[in-house]
Design a protein that fits this description.
Strand content: under 5%
Structural class: mainly alpha
Largest sheet: 2 strands, antiparallel
Order of helices and strands: EHHHHHHHHHHHHHEH
Number of helices: 14
Helix content: over 70%
Shape: globular
Distance between the termini: 31 Å
Radius of gyration: 25 Å
Length: about 375
């Protein structure tokens, strides 16, 4: 018999509870990521068997062969890694400031367009020792302007930087398309195929017989410089504070608008450098696919590395390895490219998903009760 005054309340205990972790020691966090990669590879093995019937070991071997099989493949891989890393470095200061710069594709493309224009119009008039520095300055300036335009509107009118920078990509693409049509006009003596193929005017010089080595050295130096800039400089400190809280930044006397403009100028300038490296050091031409989507891939690289330039090297390598390996699978086994894309997607899904377990831990019901006791 229940008494009239007696009431029963049913407390529904959760099966599990997600709790934010304290910062994991670096080797534990990397252990979580490595476990995620191993699990992803095991699942991919089952997918390979189910979809194709091939031996997963042979498929994985072909991925390695596609990346490191020959000296030429190694240098192509390092070149691709360097370019992706360069653009990742470019977007990192903005992202750390929580300015969502989705316009790296367009900023790099505009930088490349500036280099191509100078190669076409000044290529046979100036020696490389003068032309290449002028191209570098023009590419940096062009990328900087393309980054500053959305930054000015954000600082003055608080516009949505995500949409603004995204739209700037399309403007840059159309501008490149217009220039290509103009340069290919028969009335113009210059052709926008391989620019200055006979004279190599405006082309980066080979070092020790390797045409990509100068690109790689430049990006390596930029990686060190960006690490020092973000971690030890006053500007890097201001970027971190603005990213944490703009109100706090204003309270301690930081000029938030100035930081936004300065940081986006830097981000755009580095994208301009990437455009220079792609046109002068890699492709020696310009088209709408010169950047090849790296401006968007760089976003994932920057986030995976938690804005650490040195870890970005590893993240960039992983992405490039998966891209080149997936292409090799499609070629070697005559598979539909969708199969290789599925494998890449599974691996990236587990890598990105592992960040949840790095940042959070799960307490199940028994552990919750123990915690209450």
């Amino acid at each position: 018999m229940m008494k009239n005054n007696e009431t029963h309340t049913h407390v529904h205990e959760p099966i599990f509870q997600v709790v934010k972790r304290d910062d994991l020691i670096w080797y534990k966090s990397w252990a979580v990521r490595l476990i995620a990669i191993v699990i992803a590879l095991i699942i991919c093995a089952f997918v390979i068997v189910l979809l194709t019937g091939y031996d997963p070991i042979k498929v994985y071997s072909s991925m390695i062969s596609g990346t490191f099989g020959t000296s030429r493949k190694v240098w192509n891989t390092l070149q691709r890694l360097a370019m992706l890393l360069c653009i990742s470095l470019a977007v990192t200061p903005a992202f750390k400031m929580k300015f969502w710069n989705i316009g790296a594709e367009g900023q790099s493309l505009i930088g490349g367009l500036a280099s191509a224009a100078l190669m076409i119009y000044l290529g046979n008039k100036l020696p490389n020792i003068l032309l290449i520095p002028i191209m570098a300055a023009a590419s940096i300036f062009a990328g900087m302007i393309w980054g500053l335009i959305p930054a000015i509107f954000k600082a003055k009118f608080n516009t949505n930087e995500t949409l603004f920078t995204l739209m700037m990509n399309y403007v840059a693409t159309q501008l490149v398309s217009f220039c290509i049509v103009f340069w290919e006009n028969p009335k113009n003596s210059n052709n926008v195929g391989i620019i200055n193929q006979s004279t190599m005017s405006g082309w980066f010089p080979s070092i020790f017989g390797q045409k990509y080595l100068l690109n790689i050295i430049i990006v390596a130096l930029l990686t060190i410089a960006m690490y020092v800039y973000l971690k030890y400089s006053k500007h890097g400190y201001e970027i971190s504070v603005v990213g944490e809280s703009q109100n706090t930044a204003r309270y301690i006397g930081i000029n938030v608008k100035k930081v936004i403009l300065r940081t986006m100028a830097l981000s755009g300038a580095l994208c301009g450098v990437a455009g220079l490296l792609l046109v002068s050091g890699t492709n020696h031409t310009i088209n709408t696919s010169t950047v090849g989507g790296m401006g968007f891939t760089a976003i994932m690289v920057s986030w995976l590395a938690k804005f650490n330039p040195f870890i970005m090297v590893l993240a960039s390598f992983l992405i490039v390895f998966l891209e080149r390996g997936a292409g090799e699978i499609a070629t070697a086994f005559q598979l539909n490219e969708s199969v290789s894309d599925i494998l890449t997607g599974i691996i990236l899904f587990f890598i990105i998903g592992s960040e949840f377990f790095v940042r959070y831990k799960i307490h199940f019901r028994a552990n919750i009760k123990e915690g209450v006791k």
